[in-house]
Each structure stands twice: as structure tokens, then as C-alpha cells.
Amino acid sequence: MMVRQSWCRTLTLLLVPLFFASSTHALQETSVGIIDWHKPLIGSPSLSSPATSPRFHRVQGKNSRSVIISATEPNVVAALDAVNGSVAWRHVFQEEDRIVSVHQYGWITATLSSPGGSNLRVFSVLDGDLLFEKQFHTLQSGLLTEPPHLGSNIAFGNDTMGIGTPDLFVLTNGRSVTRFVGRDLKWKWESEDQTSLVIYTQILLTPQAIYAIGLSKSIASYTLSVTSLSPDTGEVISSALVPSSIGNVDDVLYMHSTTGDPFVTWLESNQIRSHKLTPDLKAKPTSHRGGTYFRISDVGLASHGLFMATKLDGDNRAMKIALDEVQVAWDFERSAPSEKQSASKYTGGFDKEGRPYIGRLYWSYYLGLSSVELFAPHLGDGKGLIAGYALRFDTNQHGTIEHITMDAANPNPYHVLGRLVITTSAGTVQLWQQDQLQWSRDEGLADIVATEFVELPERVLAATEGSEGFVERLKRQSVQLKNLPNYMIHFIKRFATGSYESATSSAVPSSPQSGVASLHRDTFGFRQVIVMATSRGKIFGIDSSNGQVLWSKLLALGAKQAEEGARVKPVKMFVVKAVGDLEENTNAGPGEPEVAVVAQRGGSGSTSEEEIVVYHFHALTGENVKPALRKPGPLRGIKVASSASVTDAYVLQSANGKVVVVLDRELKVHLYPDTPTSKSIFHASISALSVPLRVRDDTTAKHRLVGHQFVQSVEGASVAVAVPTWTLSLPDGEDIQSIIPPSARGVPVASLGKVLGNRTTLYKYLNERLVVVLTAPHSASAASFSPTSKNAARCGVYLVDGVKGTVVYHASVPTIGGGSCDVKAVLTENWLVYHYYDEDYQPSGQTKGYRIISVELYEGGKVDDKTGSSDMTSYKEEMVDVTPYERSFVYLHGVTAIATTKTKFGITTKDIIVANDNDKIQNLNHRVLDPRRPNRKPTTEEMEEFLIQYDPVILDDPRQTLSHNYQISRVQKIVTAPSLLESTSLVFTYGLDLFLTRVSPSKTFDVLSEGFNKPQLVLTVAALGVAILFTKPAVNRKRLREKWYS
Amino acid sequence: MLLVLSFFLLPLAVTSQQVNLYHRLQLLNGQQSTFIKRGAIVYEDSHSASYHPSPSALEHYGQFSATLQEIDRVDQDRILYQVALERDGDWDISSVKWCHLPQISSETLILHTTDTSQPTSHAIDYFVSPILPDGACPVKGSLSASFEHLARLNTTVLLRTPRLPPLPELRTPPPLTPEGKPAEPVPEKSFIQKYWMYIAAALVALLMSGGASEEGQGGQK
Q1: B174 with A894: CB under 8 angstroms?
Q2: Does the structure show a pLDDT above 50 at A897?
Q3: Do B116 and B219 reside in the same domain of the chain?
Q4: Are residues B35 and B133 in the same domain?
Q5: Side-by-side strand order, sheet with A549-554
Q6: How far apart are CA A740 and CA A760, in angstroms?
């Protein structure tokens, strides 16, 4: 016995290096693009200001090329290739450095960001190379304005250096103008009167003078103020107030006339007035007498003296400044919104020769189409020419058109062609060349709020939809019998050559089928549908094998459509019928998987009331399950509660099906589907249900954790109400930031303990009711705490029993800058990992930096103590009898999201997946984060447990990087899902980009590797078989002889 | 003057603080009753506290039991006994099942506190023992049970403070000279430098013993 034990020990020691070698999960270059995919996005274009909205830009030259430049909601500046819609380049700005304006000229584009436009960055427009950057003032001294671009601007001058780069004139903070020649600052002018109420908003360039034009605030209106500067020295030539009374900052336009003279045009008492700028500022304003207007708007053609004006009757006119006065360029008659047509969107653009055009788009209620009109001012003998066409824009799928931009071509004098880039309310960006859709980008995918993996059915199940009788099956199988020889040949060939799928094979189907028939799972279940809901009220079904959008649907607004600012806000998503789940009618067998999205919808008006809706649809097609009537249009929802909003939602699983339980603000329970079966399922389990909720105290405006149980409702529309049963109050000054459920909820636990090298056991503390609660200093109290004082506010990491409210673990970590907390945590089984920034280095004598704390909870106070926590009630005192093993590690980066891998049976070791602020996804092996790593060289017993010596620093090992060389920006969440292979987990990240890969924390132990020599095995077996055939008679003869002579 | 002031302030600092503890019966589908004072927690020092029950606390259990008698149908599993910790703002509440009380012999009050210098607690966890591992109510009904044994209840009060996460155990930095340069390690002596005396002694011994034996051998020949 002893001999066997020592032999085992020796074998283990020999295997240890092998295990260490296997703990590295380097992504093979050959697997890139096969086991993973990356979908770079730019986010929905920022449409709040013309300074950030999309616009065409053509770079002239030998190879003329057009890009669409835009700043976007996630604070990205990007250029899209106009030919195919791919991302030519993008720059992700930091959250606090908000982009205020984007400008382009020739081959450069420049951005101003942060309040007052403090940061200037200049990029190459075609490849996005950063040419130079400059900070003008600090973040704190920046002028906060509304709209944010007010007080900052850029004007491009001539190329005085002769290097192809125009001189830059940059207006910042509403009072400074700086001239750059190349990268060198030539001069800087600053408004002398620092206390003045004048905010300079625009600069216009002429060879004679630079005009800084500002708005001076008086009691009820603004007055124009102009300062002319010397282009060479920046000295003031003249300064004057222009007699004006402007009601709104948007009612002023700054432009050059058709002959290049600078003008300021504004709306005053429904009249368009203009003022020509000269260096001495002696000119007088003039009024346009052709009509009365209520709005003037810039369409991006200010450099050519063109703008739009809306008359009091709603009709629109294209206006121009020519011969030193404002004239009507074109009258868009009957363009006012009516029952026949929607309000029009206008935009300006240029052709290859730089000639301006104005585009108009409106929705025709009669035709159900978008109509486009293009106005070319230079055609028609200088009187202008209109060309029109219609777009088959699918508003049911993409929402309403919110913004357009254009460029044009004029191949012959009577022919105008337009390219229109459309941005929709659902975040879709499309390019239409005339009436043909060229490309479409779903930028709404950068705003995902809920997602679920949905397993696909097997091929056979997908092919034999519906009921099939015995005779039909017999007929089908007799027809299929003709394929038997082919099948046999294929089988033998496959058996002999071993061309099986491996864990690194592509999951993309090879068959050219399309539609639902093509949606079947692959051998190892890597191919699934990822259903996503965006904050813009759209849902997507994405193929996890390649990232292709299978279907997308808009969530219908229902009766709320008529309300102002109506929108759908998805809250939670549940797979209500997975593959294998029984249908309500058990005879029907497993069908298509189904998903339910719990959402709330309503308008933005003060009188508008929100309602709770459930959208129930097929995961493979996105078609409504309920209501079952299939007709084209947005996905229709079923109203669950009126005048209510969602507090939380859950799914209740029983043998009879799944029920969605929605809890509203008044803690009333609403069930979906609202059927007697659902009610009986809910009432059967009501006594066992308990949920912790984040409840706000109205007097202190702070939150605390309150446990609730459900009781049957005696009256009203709801089935039950949640009643508070316990509370967890926090220390003074702390407030709940988030509640994180355990990541592996529902995944089986493979082992209840860990056997140590000395044959003792540490029993895992397995409490599936545990939730992680992260706390931060309350915004009101943070200021009252000094970061250096003894009572400094701190961040909290709690593990709380969700049924009784027991605090099982509580750690206090330092804040960042004395006020904020950026703790990321994940809990799986008995393992808690959290990441934070520690700048509290002085007391400990350590360096400041990012820390990862790994905590494992074990039952009792010592080894071999067993309390049976996995089956124990929360009310038993032994539930707090826990020993935490902790270790701290230095991590080199900030973390934006953290998760653990998830496998089908929970046998495989769990790894931690982190998305760091270096735009990488990394895999941290459990062996590295094991809190029991010894400080010295591991002993023989510790080596048996595969423990390695403690190293405080988790190095930036490229082999840990799952994301190859992709830039996965601003990851918001990591979702992991099991595949059919126990060894392999799918990892999906979303935020700005979408990224999916596979990980095998313990290597692919359950499938043969690609390098396995199958022919050799077959040949060996065959050779042995032949050898047996030959030797068997001889052996038989020998045995017979032995029997005779024995 | 300062000394005199300190002399007067010292007793204030060491005076033990106390906080009241309340309790009530909660029927989930009934109206919420008010909390009644159960006793007080007295903080003896920053690490220990004791529980002092209110003289009338025992009577309260009888009142609770009487309340239950008046109700027709009660799901025993859903009657909670709640203990509340008095604090500024909302009190902190911990619950156990009422049906466990008739058979318990001990109770534990875990008070969560952050500042050991000022023993005030922000949260409470309350447990009773013994109970079944699955938390099921005893078969014998608890509605008409007697509660006299609760007077002899063994009460334990525990104070819990948050853990500070461990610090990374960084390696010791290399020593520096007063000028800030890395200190040159003392060069290690070679094998001969370290052990020359032993080698020399061994050689001498070898020489001396070797010569004698050779002579002896020669003589024998």
C-alpha cells in the first residue's frame, strides 16, 4: 500500500510541470478568426449638435476618397469608409474628455474636447493618425456652456508653410483665439475683459482680418459682439457691438457670401438680418424683406453662403447671401408637415468639384416611402434645379430617420445623383446611393442593456418541424435510404482518416442553407444565438459562430407611440423556453427556443405614465410568440401593468414551465404569462421565494438592502406583493452601488471540498443565496469625510445571504480621491474575486496601484470542519461559521468588467476573465489567483495540490490575452456561457465593441486534439487484428498440445 | 489647564455606551405591529458587548403567542420573529422563524461595526439555536408553546468589524547606498578562500600519515 502511495506521489511530481505548462492558454494564431470574432463599432452618432453629427468629407487628389466623419454617443470620433461602411479609423476618447466639436479640412480633421474645448487633437482624415495635440486650459477652468460646443471653434486658414497643412485658428473657452502654423503656436489673443459677459462663439477668416464673433448676454436676449484681429500678429484691429436682439443662440449663423465676404446672419423678430464684416467694423446690418420666419438653420454650406429658413407657415426656403444681401435661392413649396407628409430634414453637401447642394428628405404617409429632393443651385442657368427620388426605407426595422447628410455628383447638366447617409432612432447608420441601399451599420449594438445565450436545436429537430405520422416517417426514411451508400463511404472515410471536428474548429455551418433551417447547433454547441436588447428599443439575434446579425426587430411602442418622446427601455431578458424544455403541451415535444424581454415604455412628458410590457418572441427568428398573429412590423409587447415601472424581474422555473415574475415600484407582483397555470406555479413556491432589493430611503436619499418575501394579494390586479422581512443598514456615509448575483447560479457544483496534500479536506462554503453588495460613499456624505481623516469614507465589499440578510464577509477598501469607488467583483461557488485601485499607500508603506483580491470561503474554522452549508438553511447559525482565505495581487491595469468561465457540469476549473483599460480581454487562471499559494517554495504536499509559489504581481503575460491584437474598447460586461463540451466555455463581451471567443481553462481534456494521429491508431489496431488472426490457430494448437501432454 | 481638562474628559471616554434592542412578531400577510423594547446592548469596550434583557421581555413572548391564537389559519413557516437594532434613521432588522423559539437554548447577536474606537453598530444579525439543518419548523406546534425557558437563554453578543484586504507581499527592494545607488553585494568568497584552513589541515595530516605508512611498507619488504 505504501509502495503504491509513494508511486502515486512520484507520478504527481512528474506531472506537475506538465500542469504548469498546460496552465498557459495562449491563443494560437491559426485559431484567430475561427474560434473568435470581433465586431468593432463606433456607437450611435451624436446628433445633439451639428458640430458632432455625421458629415461627408471627400479628400481630393489622385485617389479621391470619401469618408463619413462623426462623433458618437460613447465619446468616439470615427471615420467610416463611404464605399463599404467599414470603420476606416476611430479614436476612443476618455469618458471625462467629452468631444464638443469635430472639424475637417483637406486631409486633416481636428477635434476639440472637454469644457471650453480645452483639448485640440489633429488627425489625418484617411487613416486617423494623430498628428498633434494641445491642451489650452485645465479641465477645472473650462467654460461650461449649453450647447457644449458654444465658446469653441476651429477655422482653417491657408497653408502658409507650404507643407500641405492649413494654419489653424482655434477659439477656446469663449475668449481665446490661437493661431497654429504647422504644429507651432504663432500667436494667441485673449479677450482682455475677463469678467465680460461676451462669449466668443465663432471665428471667420479673411486675408485682411480674423473676426471673433461673440454673444453678449443681456436681460432677455443676446447682442452680437465682433472683434477683428490682425491675421499676422493677433492684435486687435477693431471691436464693436452690432445692434441686435437675438432670442436664441441657435438663431445666429456665421458664413461667407457667395463672393467670399464674411457675414453674420441672425433671426430677430421673425426677420432675417445680416451684417457684413469689415476690418473696421463700420458696416450696418440689413434686413431681408422677403418674408417672416421662425427658424434659420445651418446645413453645412455656410462657406458658400447657403442656409435654410423656415417660414411662419411651416414652408422652407433655401437662402443665400449674394450681392451683400440675403436672397431666396429656392422655395420648397408645400414642405410644411401635414397629414400627407412628415416634417422635412435638410442637409447640405458637395460634389467632386466642390459645388454645393441641398438635400431634403421627408416621409410620405401616402406612399409609405421616404422622398428625397436634391437642389443644385448652380444648375438651371443659375436659378437652381431640383431632382427627386424615393427610398424604400424600412422604418419598422430601423426606427425613424433622425439625421441625414449627403454628397452629390453631377454627371451631366440635367442629372444630379445623391448619396445620403441616414441615422435612425434605433442607432442604424445607412448609406443610400440614390434609391439603392449600399450598406447598413447597427450602431445600436453599442448600447446593449440585456443579453442571453440561446442554445440551438439539433439539425434533425429543426428539419422535422411539426407532427409526423408513422406512414410519413416511413416514406421519408425510404426516400432517404438512397443516401445510405454515400453515408457509409463517408463514415468509413471519416473513421479511417479521423477528420473529426476539434475544439478549435470553426462553428460556422458549411451548408449554404439560409433561414431557420440553417440554424442548428454544431457538434460541440459553440454555435448559439445571442439575443440582445439595446437601450434604443431594438432587439437583435446574433450568430455566435461568426457575429452575423440573424435578425433584428424594433420593439413596438403600442399606445404610447402618440406621446412625446415615447421610448421602450428594456430591463431584463429571460430564455423562457430553451432547447429541451417541455412545452405547455407535452405532446408537441421540444420546439423553437423562446425569449421574453421585460421592458417599460412611456413618453418623456410630465403627465406621461410608464407601463410594463413583456415582449415574447422566437429566439431563432425574432417573430412574436404572443400575440401570435404574425404580420410585418415591430415586435408587439403584452402589457403586464399600467402606470408602473420595473423594480426587478425574475424567472421562476418549475416542471410545468417558466414564469416571468415582474416586481413593480410598489412591490406588486405581475406574472407573465398571466394564466392560471402561472399563478399556480407561483403560489406553489411563494413561501420559498425571497429577494433582496435595493431600497431608497426618501429622507436620507440613501439606499439599503432590504429582504422581501411574497404574500398573496387579496385585492387589486397583482397576484402578490413583496413584504420586507429584514434590512441591512450600512455604515454612515455608505450607499449601495450595485448588487451582483453569483455568476454560476444554476450551474451544478462538481465538488464540495478540496482535498489537501496531507489528506485533510477543506469543505467549500457553498451558499447559493449569497449576493455581492458593493458600496460607495454617498454623494451627500462624501464631502463631509476627509480622505485623510480616520473616519474617511471607504468602499465596501459585502457577501450577504439573500434570504436572511446575514453578512458573511465584509471588506473595506479605500476610495479613489476620497470619494468614488471603482470596485469590480465576481462570485462563483465559494470564490470571490474583486479588483480595486489602492491609493491608500502611506499607512502600509506600499505603492499605489491596482489590486486583485482573491478570497475563498471554507466551512468552519479549520480543515476537516464540515457544516454542510450547501444544504443548510440561512437561519442556522453555522452559516456564519466561515473561514476566508485571502490573497492580494498587484494587477497592472484598471478593469472595466470581470466574470468567471461557466461550463456545463462545473467540473472544469473556473478562470477569471477580465476586460482591462488597455482594451484587452485577459484570462486569469485559478492557479495564479489561488489564495493558498505559499510564500516559499511549495512542499511536496503543496505540489500535489498544484500550488505554486506566491508572486505578488500578475504580469502582463500576452499568453493570457484572449483578444489577440483586437482593440476591444470600453467593455461594459462579460457574459460567459457553457458549450456542450465540458472543457470549453464561450466568452462574450459587449460595451462599445462585440467580441466572442472560447476558453478551455483546463485545456480540452474531453476531445481529441487536432494533432492526434488517427491513421496511426487505426493501422496499429488493424495490424494487431491481423496478428491475432495469424497467431490464433498457433495458440490454439499449442493449448491443445499442452492438454494432451500435461 | 490641559491636564485638568483631560482629567474631566477621561471618565466620559471610558463610560460604556448602550443601544436598545427591540423585537416584534411579524405575520407576512398581516398588519405590521410595532416594535417593543427587548433589552439593551452595552458596549463594554471596543471589542466586547453584553446583552441586558428588559424585565418585561418575557411577557412579550406571551403577548405574541396570544396574537397568534386570535388568527384562524397561520402558516407557521411564515411567521417571523424580528429583532431590531435602534439607530439613527431606519432601524436595522434581522429575522428568524417564530416556530423555532419554543425549542431554543441559545441566541447569538452579531453586531456589525466599523469604528472600534466608537462602538456603534450599523447592522445586526440574529440567530437562535438549535434548529434543524433545513430550517423546518418542529412538528409540534409553536402557537401555544410556553416561553419560560427563554428567561434562561444563553445569549452571546459578538462584535464584527470589516476586514481590511491583505496587502500584496512585495519583495524586499534591493539595498541602496546613501547616494541612492544600488548597494554592491559583498563578493562571495571562493571555496578555497572559505575552507583553506581545513584543506591545509587535511593536507598536513595526509602528508604526515602518508609518509609514515610508506616507511612501514618499505620496512616490511
Answers
A1: no
A2: yes
A3: no
A4: yes
A5: A448-455, A528-534, A538-543, A549-554
A6: 33
Number of structural domains chain B divides into: 2
Please give the ipTM for the structure prediction: 0.81
Contact B135 A880 (CB under 8 A): no
Q: Which of A728, A871, A886 sits opposite B123 (nearest CB)?
A: A728
Answer yes or no: is B220 within a domain: yes
Residue B114 lies in a domain: yes
Compute the nearest-CA separation of B107 from chain A (Å). Answer: 9
- From B135, B136, B162, residue closest to A811, measured CB to CB: B162
Q: How many angstroms separate the most distant Cα atoms in chain A?
A: 136
pLDDT at A72 over 80: yes
The percent of residues above 70 in pLDDT, for chain A, comes to 90
Q: Do B122 and A887 touch (CB under 8 A)?
A: no
Q: What is the pLDDT of residues A949-972, one digit of tens each?
A: 999 999 888 888 999 889 999 999
> What single letter denotes the amino acid at residue A496?
A
Of A687, A726, A950, the CB nearest to B94: A726
Q: Judge: B131–A873 Cβ closer than 8 Å, yes or no.
A: yes
Task: Indicate left, alpha or beta for A354 from its phi (over 0: left) and psi (-120 to 50: alpha).
Answer: left
Residue A778: the pLDDT is 83
The alpha-carbon gap from B9 to the nearest alpha carbon of chain A, in Å, equals: 20
Average pLDDT value over all residues in chain A = 87
What are the tens digits of pLDDT across the range B76-113? Answer: 778 899 999 998 778 899 999 988 888 889 999 999 98
Radius of gyration of chain A (CA): 34
B59, B98: one domain: yes
**Angle, CA of A277, A280 and A286, to the nearest 5°:** 40
Work out the minimum CA distance from B210 to partner chain A, whole angstroms: 46
Q: Is the pLDDT of residue B200 over 90?
A: yes
Which residue of A702, A714, A723, A726 is the best one to mutate when testing the B interface, meaning the one whose CB has the most B CBs within 10 A?
A: A726
CB contact under 8 A, B163 and A809: yes
Query: Which grid coordinates are listed for A299?
Result: 446645413
**What is the rounded average pLDDT of the residues A407-433?**
92
Closest residue, chain B, to A933 (C-alpha): B169
Contacts with B117 from chain A: Cβ below 8 Å: 790
> Is residue B65 situated within a structural domain?
yes
Residue A467 has pLDDT above 70, yes or no: no
User: Does the pLDDT value for residue A454 go beyond 90?
Assistant: yes
What residue numbers bound the domain in which B48 lies?
Answer: 10-160
Q: Which residues of B touch A791 (CB under 8 A)?
A: 115
Paired sense of beta strands A262-268 and A538-543, if any = unpaired
What is the reported pLDDT for A497?
65
The radius of gyration of chain B's CA atoms, rounded to the nearest angstrom, is: 37
Q: Are residues B68 and B14 in the same domain?
A: yes
**Cell output for A288:** 431681408
Of B129, B160, B165, the CB nearest to A888: B165
**Residue ranges per structural domain of chain A:** 45-172, 191-334, 337-426, 448-644, 1013-1046
Cβ separation A810–B122 shorter than 8 A = no
Judge whether B76 lies within some domain: yes
Co-location of B118 and B200 in the same domain? no
Q: Which of A699, A791, A812 sits opposite B162 (nearest CB)?
A: A812
Closest CA to A345 of A358, A365, A360: A360
What distance in Å separates the CA atoms of residue A222 and residue A197, rounded to the nearest whole number?
Answer: 10
pLDDT tens readout for residues A242-274: 999 998 888 999 988 878 889 999 999 899 999
Architecture of domain A191-334: 7 Propeller (2.130)
Q: For A876, which of B114, B123, B131 is closest by C-beta distance?
A: B131
Q: Residue B12 has what pLDDT?
A: 38
- List, as own/partner pairs, every contact residues A627-631 make where C-beta atoms lie below 8 angstroms and the sequence separation is at least 24, other chains included: none
pLDDT digits (tens, 9 = 90+) for B38-76: 999 998 877 788 999 888 888 888 888 888 877 766 677
Alpha carbon of A814: minimum distance to chain B alpha carbons (Å): 9
Q: Which residues of A touch B90 (CB under 8 A)?
A: 697, 704, 727, 729
Q: What is the CATH number of domain A45-172?
A: 2.40.10.480
